[in-house]
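Hi P.,

Sorry for the delay on this. The queue was packed all week, but I finally got your sequence through. Input first:
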Amino acid sequence: MATRRIPVVLVTGFLGSGKTTMLNHLLRGSVDTRIGVIVNDFGSINIDAMAVAGQVDSMIPIENGCLCCAADSSEMDEMLARLTEPGLGIDVIVIEASGLAEPQSMIRTLLSSGCEHIAYGGLVEVVDAVEFENIRERHPELDRHVRAADAVVLNKADRVREPERTRVLETVARIAPGTPVVTAEHGRVDPDFLFDRGPGAPDEERFHQLSFAEVCSDEDDWHEHLHAAYQSVEFTADRPLDPRRFMEFVDGRPAGLYRMKGFLHFAAPGHGEKFALHAVGSYLRFQPSDWAPGETRTTQLVMIGAGIDADALTKELADCVAAAPETVGDHHMMGVLRYVREPADGSDTDEPDGAEPGPADASHMD
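Then the structure:
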């Protein structure tokens, strides 16, 4: 009998495009499918893995670097072997790459895998409809990433008006003619678009697969990794933050600080929740939730940017720790609460999405 091979789907996309949001939607929507997940975050605090934990059948987090550099074929084989153990009953494996990973390098690693229990299931590039043109201007190599994709998800389609959405779709079609594109809001994608749900052998013809020549090609100097220009800064604090000071930090953040995400513990009466922070570009959102029983109330924040001063950032954040929490009043939370937006479906979201801001939605920073 032929060995059953489990499809491995790669999910890539620039910082804040909505990869983890889409992954969480797939995990909630695939009731009859057991999904194994490898999550790679750019930094030593794996915020994305924390956001996915509890919803996935089996997960392996990778921290402090990009998967395209952090794992060679043997390391990848070891992770895949763990997820393909028969006892787990995994139907599909999804690898969520760092927002700064190189897709072609990841494809090459998978195609050279010695794990006989997996099959390449395609690469899905998540594109941010709002930030796409700005990102292309700063990083022309994004075009190469889109060309490497077997399918493209145009996420946050609800946050751009029709003419702009059409322009982005036309640009994607010009960059990667013939590549299937699906638009999405809040990362909601039909799992059937990405993989066959339920147990069974994978349909290996579902996606076009890049040839070894294409993957190993030096075209466009692909080995000049996007993340070489970026750095990750982590901050943790066991004591609660002064919300007013923290908002002053956010408002005065340096221009090179592109992405912020994490969980915050504020010192304010009546606001003891855990606040998830999601920020990309000019977009900012806080989402309150309850602390888990026995969970340590700690602030954990990851910041990603180019040309940023790590020491200066951590010092500014350290100054946000409330010296005397009892002096922090309820009104100090007003700045934070301006950016609180509950998901429309009541579910947890984990990357910046949302509707075009109106008078009642102050989701974009001034």
